[in-house]
What we know:
The structure holds two protein chains of two kinds. By secondary structure, chain A is an alpha/beta fold. In chain A, 28% of the residues lie in helices and 14% in strands. In chain A, the strands form three sheets. Chain A has a five-stranded parallel beta sheet with strand order 2-1-3-5-9, with helices on both faces. A two-stranded antiparallel ribbon of chain A has the order 4-8. In chain A, strands 6-7 form a two-stranded antiparallel ribbon. Chain A starts with a strand and ends in a 19-residue tail after the last helix. Chain A is built from eleven helices and nine strands. Among the domains of chain B are: 131 residues, 3-Layer(aba) Sandwich (Rossmann fold), CATH 3.40.50; 69 residues, no CATH class; 166 residues, FAD/NAD(P)-binding domain (3-Layer(bba) Sandwich); 56 residues, Alpha-Beta Plaits (2-Layer Sandwich). Chain B is built from 15 helices and 36 strands. In chain B, the strands form 13 sheets. Chain B has a five-stranded parallel beta sheet with strand order 10-7-6-20-31, covered by helices on one side. A five-stranded parallel beta sheet of chain B has the order 22-29-23-24-25. Chain B has a four-stranded parallel beta sheet with strand order 2-1-3-4, sandwiched between helices. In chain B, a hairpin with a 4-residue loop joins strand 34 and strand 35. Classes of the chains: A alpha/beta, B alpha/beta. Chains A and B meet through helix 9 of A and helix 14 of B.
Amino acid sequence: MPKPKVAFYWCASCGGCEETVVDLAEDILGVVEKLDIVLWPVAMDFKYADVEAMEDGAIFATLLNGAIRSTEQEQMARLLRRKSRVLVAYGSCACMGGIPSLANGFAREEILKFNYEDAPSVVNGPRTRPQLSFEEEGRKTHLPEQSRVVRSLDQVVDVDYFIPGCPPTPLITKKALAALLGDAPPPKGSVLAPDTALCEECPRKVGKPADLSFAQFRRPHQALLDPEKCLLAQGVVCLGPATRGGCGAQCPAGNMPCTGCFGPTSRVRDQGAKILSSLCANLEAKEAPDIDRVLEGIPDPVGTFYRYGMAKSILRRRVDLNGG
Amino acid sequence: MPEPRNGVRIGFYVCHCGHNIASMVDCPAVAAYAATLPNVAVSRDYKYLCSDPGQELIKRDIAELGLSHVVVASCSPLLHEHTFRSATEAGGLNPYCFHMVNIREHDSWVHTDRRLATEKAKALARAGIRRVAHHQPLEMKRVPIHPDVLVVGGGIAGIHAALTLASAGKKVYLVEREPSIGGHMAKFDKTFPTLDCAACILTPKMSAVRSHPNITLWSYSEVVKTDGYVGNYTVTVRRKPRYVIEELCVGCQECIDSCVYKKPMFPDEFNEGLGKRKPIHIPFPQATPQVVLIDPEVCLNFKRGVLTDKCKKTCVEACAERKAIDFNQKEELKEIKVGTIIVATGFQPFDVKRVPQYGYGTYPNVYTALEAERLVNASGPTSGEVVLRDGRHPNAIAIIHCVGSRDRKTNRWCSRVCCMYSMKLAHLLKEHSGAEVYNFYIDIRAPGKGYEEFYDKLNEEGVHFIRGRVGEVTDWAMTPEEEGKLVIRVEDTLAGFVRRIPVDMVVLSTGLEPHSDAQSVRRMFNMSCGTEGFFLERHPKLAPVNTYTDGVFIAGCCQGPRDIPDTVAQAGAAAAEAMALIDRGHIDQEPNTARILADCSGCKSCIPLCPYTAIAFDSATQKAVINEALCKGCGTCVGSCPSGSIIQNLFDDEEVFGEIQGVLADEPN
């Protein structure tokens, strides 16, 4: 019997998710033993034409990481959807828009202008911008167009499973692959991670006070943090209570707060709103000026609470009145 | 458009409410639109759905058409949610498979464009229909009610309510801010229109309060905090120090006689400052409780309220073995548990300084009505002799009605009692002084039993009535007869010319206002206020002593100006309403409580937020648990649970988002 074919692809991402596959280390041999990798641009040489040539549904599963932010990415997402029996949104960007979707807080024109004209390190006298096409020596070249809004994979095509994480851990990846190859695959639409918030598996949960009250917020570099005490109890914004577990609480174990990369539980529609509601409800300050002072400890609320999930949040994007 | 849910068959009913809704909303069009929505099995409009035939319609449809859920679009749920839930239940469904849509207060009453109002009604109907499809059967929760009652305010309203309850065997805490109960009525000489003596009818009731075994009287005390909910309130009362131990003082008043101040020197609050008292004093002879108190602001043993221990303390000597005087007394906080609360905090008289044209404070012989009450009172500072501040006896007296009332510049409302008390004062002043008495009025309002007859009697007695709002009171004499007099400048609107009437004494019939701290009282008991600041009744006609907070009732002038008979009647009504709750023995509580799912991560964020301390951390499961008996369904924990692991009945995500999506849905309609 031929081995099931599997594809890895990347869109708007940093490459960290690819790294996880590499991080499987010798376990990758087990993967290769069971699966036939037919597409993996980061590690092997394939062309679009190779994929296009495949029969529809020929690939057993595609693990696609990265958000969808350009016409090319959208095109590839659609192509791979057609060629794959199972499409997995792999990593926070594909699942929820990820860090790239923080760009949804800005108009496209603002982003292009800053990056090609205004950024302090840019020297661009003629104000050249990327063009969608240009001709040189009689040959016409095309560049993909950047979308006005960054989308998660399931906002573009039908997605079968979600494996969250920035990046997903090797363990959760292994478990997910095992589940997919097993006799009873999970129901379509499942997030292949636990549905309980991170606190449950956090080593700092023991001894977390039951009367949490925030007198101030501090960022990790502003304090010498107790390596065992709950980070929230130390006034550090930790998104653990609002974030799916399954990562083994690696960040809190490393004395850094959870930043929410596994996304919300299935019962929450907007992770940022939920943690914001929880933190604010437990503020010690009760009068407006005092509240403002405490909130100064969170200088970038969007980046803090919507770091990985802007595209899938209720906010989703800034309404772009200028059409840029 | 959402997929129809299997087995959900919704009956939708839109009420015309006579013309209340139908005049601004096209009800048949709303019904026709709703009929096109998913899951709607029947959609009807009806003139009065709250009527028996209207409710019958719903019941019959449930049976005949096999409905699973019901939506009624009509008035506020405050008014008829109970009615329609009962109809739904009588039809054989769980009462919580019902949802009410408010298209009257939220729509027809507040809009002027019939087309848009109809569109809004459709949107609200769509929201209710989408929401109700998610409603699950729920059971009412029953909690016991604490039988004790708190009565706040010891005026005639509080006294009457407390006595009524106590006579029925209920334990009552009566809390009064002043050192004695009695309120304003204790200051009155006679009462209109019967002219029976206020003290003679009030003081027996005051003594009855003091001696009643079921009443705990805390005078010189204030409620500082109220927690809990109907049937189970926890109230904190601050007992202010009177520097006299209440249990030990017998009211012999020997301490007052022996005070180092040989003569009373300080303005006496009870007599509106017309008389004097000593630092150690009793407010008035019939004060209840009969316990003296020390004013630390003027007592020599204190300096501006701080104990110095520099006085000879002759009062302590006089008290001798009783040892009732305690200069070290501190304020005490008492916590009590009650099931119901009656608020009877009364009114404050209008501050006459706000109408400077009437000369109060400028001309010594201008008096407020309450001052005049004390002047004609046999136990007042002059023993009932009408002596002016300058020692003269008046030959002519003016009584100016509506001071601070019926005036856009001050208070717009009619204070209801001023016409009658002005006439009573006219009668008493004339009787006590033989002076000519002039009443300056806008309208005489005498709509009560025997009131118009009293007006006739005054006319027969020769009291003058001049119709016109007084322009000013002045001492600027234009003729020799006006020299040394106060001149009333007024347009006599019946005679049709401006008159100048010289008098010796002016009485300002001040209107009634909410207390200046009524807002904080309102917040303390979670009540509402009308625009003028009087506490708001639940319904002006049908629930005049109830408030929007279950278990909190109002009586007397804190709800609006009224006279003694009306106050007493209202106090009795409030007592009866409280008793109705107590004697039922339990409260049926909405099953809108919250519960924690097994997915809880045990982050403990919710625990400090619960205002009813209903959430605890279970160390065995390492998850939070909600004590359902304590949960009041406020939703605080639900909204703030960071992992969405707390669900509230009637407010789960599907229901709430269904409703929001229904309102916002951009469907052809």
